[in-house]
Design a protein that fits this description.
This protein has about 350 residues and is α/β, with parallel strands linked by helices. It has ten helices and 17 strands. The strands form four sheets. A seven-stranded parallel β-sheet has the order 7-11-6-1-4-5-12, with helices on both faces. The protein is globular and about 65 Å long. The chain binds flavin-adenine dinucleotide (FAD). It comes from Roseospira visakhapatnamensis.
């Protein structure tokens, strides 16, 4: 990742003019993350964002699909058009069956060097984070990870990628001025999901993977799907109920779980509860946990620190329960109850149970 330092280096400060040899780079690309026949939904969120950037730049949006033929690539290509791609680059090869850094990096590096996109975006998933770092290194370009906002700088036409920094206490905007493509990763659910247009279609540009198995150092011996069906699906939940240190004792976590169960919601927490071992790490909401975008977020006994806020303020409606009327969470909650969560959570559970019975 390259972050713009407080004092820009002399070269960047002198001119925002793009070097001549990089002016051939055009269009906005999104890596469509296809794994075992399924596309990660962050790819569609990024296509929605790419559309806005491309419209500002007056260029096209392209999707990049990598995978073995017949394992969801056709469907991924079709859907990429539905979600806003004008064209799709497709590399089909059995070497792309299970994700490995080497062949995926090689396929994308070759595509970029041949077709020269000015912006390339990937989801900040486990796969996307690995691939983005490797790719930025081979392409010798700048990568801004975990962006929360993307825009085009009016004067330089550069991608202005905003992300939290200094432990989330500041937001910084980073621009890659002297290299192309400009790369960014964005976490799932940070950008909103565009409406698909099922009538859209477009050209598919096929390329080959110039690699053989012997070139790849990593060998996949077996693929074992995650057996833990209890893994929290916070990022995709419609309703989330969460608790913070205001719950006071580990047994009070049950009050959050009870309300979540009645509402058919997912439950989560602030980071200190993970550190205390009151909930598992997959339930942490915030900058170093999950970003949520539910229709309703109920936060009980959570102060609303900036690191928690960046992961939860995308909720359509936020109801905060806190004994302190000056708690920062009331700055961004839509509804607030000043009171004891240990009394209010069970009262809400009872009220909803009676109403929904
Ligand atoms: P507190 O800040 O202690 O707040 C407890 C709140 O409960 C208070 O507002 C209090 O008024 C209220 N309260 C007390 N009793 C009751 C009661 N009976 N009923 C109702 N309200 C009550 N935090 C995250 O959440 N997610 C992250 O991803 C995250 N990442 C971080 C990354 C870094 C690098 C750092 C440095 C910190 C991170 N944090 C994160 C921690 C964050 O800064 C806060 O410390 C944390 O969010 C506070 O958790 P809390 O609100 O539960 O606790």
């Amino acid at each position: 990742m390259s972050e713009t330092p407080a004092k820009p280096p002399a070269r960047a400060a002198k001119s925002k003019e793009l070097p001549e040899h990089l002016k051939a780079y055009r269009h906005v690309w999104v890596f469509i993350e296809l794994e075992h026949g399924r596309v990660h939904s962050v790819s569609w969120e990024l296509l929605g964002e790419a559309r806005k950037l491309a419209d500002t730049l007056k260029v096209d949006v392209a999707g990049v699909v990598l995978g073995p033929a017949g394992e969801g690539t056709d469907q991924a290509v079709a859907e990429a058009f539905h979600y806003g791609a004008d064209q799709v680059y497709l590399v089909e090869d059995p070497l792309l069956t299970n994700y490995r850094t080497d062949p995926f990096t090689k396929a994308l590096t070759d595509l970029v060097n041949t077709h020269k996109p000015e912006i390339l975006m990937l989801g900040a998933s486990t796969l996307g984070r690995d691939l983005a770092g490797a790719l930025a290194t081979t392409l010798a370009t700048g990568l801004t990870a975990d962006c929360t906002e993307l825009a085009i700088d009016g004067t330089s036409r550069a991608l202005a990628a905003t992300r939290p920094t200094f432990g989330g206490s500041l937001l910084c905007t980073i621009m890659t001025l002297a290299a192309r493509p400009q790369m960014a990763t964005v976490r799932p659910r940070v950008m909103s999901m565009p409406e698909p247009d099922r009538s859209r279609a477009g050209p598919v540009i096929r390329e080959r993977l110039d690699m053989v198995e012997e070139d790849i150092v990593t060998k996949v011996l077996d693929f074992i799907p995650d057996a833990d069906t209890n893994q929290a699906q916070l990022a995709f939940a419609d309703i989330v109920v969460a608790g913070g240190l205001g719950l006071q004792r580990p047994e009070n976590v049950q009050l959050v779980k009870d309300l979540a169960e009645v509402l058919g919601a997912e439950y989560g927490c602030s980071r200190p509860l993970i550190q205390k071992g009151w909930m598992t790490a997959d339930r942490q909401i915030g900058q170093t946990g999950k970003t949520i975008r539910p229709r309703l977020y109920i936060a009980a006994g959570i102060s609303g620190a900036i690191q928690h806020r960046v992961g939860s303020e995308g909720a359509d409606r936020i109801l905060a329960i806190n004994t302190d009327p000056n708690a920062p969470i009331f700055d961004f909650a839509h509804h607030g109850i000043v009171g004891d969560a240990l009394e209010i959570l069970p009262a809400l559970t009872e009220a909803f149970r009676a109403r929904l019975a």
